[in-house]
Amino acid sequence: MMDTDERGPYLVLTSGAKWYLTDPDPCAVSYKDIGASLSKLCRFGGHTNPFYSVAQHSVMCAWEARKAGLNERERLTVLMHDAAEAYLLDIPTPLKGLLPDYQKLERLTEQVIADALDLIYPFPDFVKEIDARMLATEQRFLMPRTRSYASPDAPPFDDIILKPSVCWTPDNAEDAFRTEYWRLVT
Predict the structure, then answer these.
(1) From CA 161, how far away is CA 180, in angstroms rounded?
(2) Nearest Cα to Cα of residue 41 among 31, 57, 50, 54
């Protein structure tokens, strides 16, 4: 059963707010809801060993942005590049390409989040480059038996080693996400 009212279908968020899928309200965007959700979403459709959250991916991307010398707004944009997945879930890239309606909702959601949080949107090339390199890094360590769908032009980060002892629990990922958010906005 889908939750819906006169405005359309919606999700009830951790905070209790409603997120209207086809008519999202920028006032409903909350870094707390985003962090809570992304910390419980596993990358690659759950096909990693061990569990590795979208929140950890986002924080690690933001750390790479800091190493690259990006400013706070640019780093916040990197941190939040997958924030739409808090409302729409993490769909693996090969499947996402088969879902044009999902892609429309994703672009709409990204724009609303960007407007609410003053992110740079459409996402600039530096976001795509960091994300692609992190994807290659994650696949190297978390999915060693799979053929990579990362770009050959995006080599893994050489200074990152992902192993079970460095994959965060959902609670740790949520805390790190919130901490990084506050570091960038204050």
Answers:
(1) 20
(2) 54
- Residue 158 DSSP label: T
CB 178 within 8 A of CB 31: yes
Cα 52 from Cα 167, distance rounded (Å) = 6
Non-local (6+) Cβ contacts of 30 within 8 A are 13, 15, 17
Nearest C-alpha neighbor of 73 from the set 35, 110, 123, 134: 123
The Cβ of residue 64 has, within 10 Å, a number of other Cβ atoms equal to 22
User: Can you give the residue ranges of every domain in the chain?
Assistant: 4-121+167-185
Class of domain 4-121+167-185: mainly alpha
C-alpha atoms less than 13 angstroms from C-alpha of 73 in its C-beta half-sphere? 9
Residues with Cβ within 8 Å of 53's Cβ and at least 6 positions away in sequence, in order, are: 38, 39, 40, 41, 42, 43, 168, 170, 173
Supply the pTM of this predicted model. 0.93
Provide block-wise average pLDDT over 10 residues at a time, the chain (186 residues): 87 96 97 98 90 97 97 98 97 92 97 98 97 89 69 76 82 98 97
